[in-house]
Amino acid sequence: MSIISEEFFAARTGEVLEARLRESDKYQKNMEDLHKALRVFSKAAGLSKKNWKLYDALDDAWTEYNIMYGEESYRLGLEDGMQIASEREIRKKGSILSFKDMTHLVYLYDTVKKINMFLLGEWDNYDRKSGILKELDRVYKVIEDGVCAEIRLRGEDELFECLTDILDNWKAVPEERAKVLTGLEKIC
Question: Which pLDDT tens digit goes with each residue over 96-112?
């Protein structure tokens, strides 16, 4: 569900967007290329009226799809931007998952990893189905849910890889890793 009202969306994608597109040389060039391609197609196609109607129906459906795709892309980008901006404001106030809380979690993560390595001889044992070690692994989920938006909004695979790279960097003390995880320091 979108946090952006339809009224706001309509206001930002109506005349305001049209005015911006009129000023965009790149957009105007793209439109020129599109019209040129359409003229070339129209001359070369030699379609009957019936086939032109079929083509128009296909073109209308494709246009509607592109409009919906663009609208959802806009909403997602705006929502991501709003989340990042609000998160920065919240972090300035020191609330939600603070640097101190994240530091405690990184220490706990390191301890869970050491226990796993001591008892099992390795860490990469994620397929445990139950038991105490599985429950201790939940600290990773808390960290994952609490990281800054710049990390959290990556794709699932990139998020996992990024978190693993940060958390498993034993050269960095927990405080340094917590700064990166909370967005107080840039990701390498």
Answer: 677 888 889 898 888 88
